[in-house]
Design a protein that fits this description.
mainly alpha; 4 helices; binds zinc ion; Anti_sigma_zinc_sf; Putative zinc-finger domain-containing protein
Length: 64
């Protein structure tokens, strides 16, 4: 079993967890490496990180 289900070499589906620090150090490293060489995912990550930063401004109580 690989972590790249569907054969997609990109890391988009994991960027959210990556931005929130919810991945294992191994996955963390793999995604950091991918972002280094993939401007497309790096751009996506910039957006996701923005959203994560915004979310962090709210208390969970405000969201629910
Ligand atoms: Zn990519």
């Amino acid at each position: 079993m690989t972590s790249e289900a569907g054969g997609d070499p990109h890391v988009r589906s994991q960027l959210g967890a990556y931005a929130l620090g919810g991945l294992t150090p191994e996955e963390d490293r793999r995604i950091a490496g991918h972002l280094d060489g993939c401007p497309r995912c790096a751009a996506d990550y910039a957006e996701v990180a923005d959203g994560a930063a915004l979310l962090a401004l709210f208390d969970e109580e405000d969201l629910w």
